[in-house]
Amino acid sequence: PVFLHIYDVSQEESIQRLNKVLAHRCSPLKLGGVFHAGLEVHGLEWSFGWSDDPSVPGVSSNEPTRHEGHHYRQTVRLLDTRFDAEGVRETLQQL
Length: 95
Prior knowledge:
Elements: E1 2-8, H1 13-22, E2 35-41, E3 44-48, E4 59-62, E5 71-78, H2 85-93
Antiparallel strand pairs: 1-2, 1-5, 2-3, 3-4
């Protein structure tokens, strides 16, 4: 399976409160917010983040729902992938 993990950007409580008002989980209407997302494929969560070092890629992985820079919010299940774990890694290395 493939999962989209959604986070409030940063660990700041003010951002979490803002997102709770603008995009409440139970509300069918979302008015916006400040979010980060990671895509879980084959047990690893992949996301893009800024890097000021040209030798460090912007794409990185972490344990699902455990991004240290952001506050986990919710998960959305997506369709399965046809790629095996190696195919996913090869594709991400091209980014």
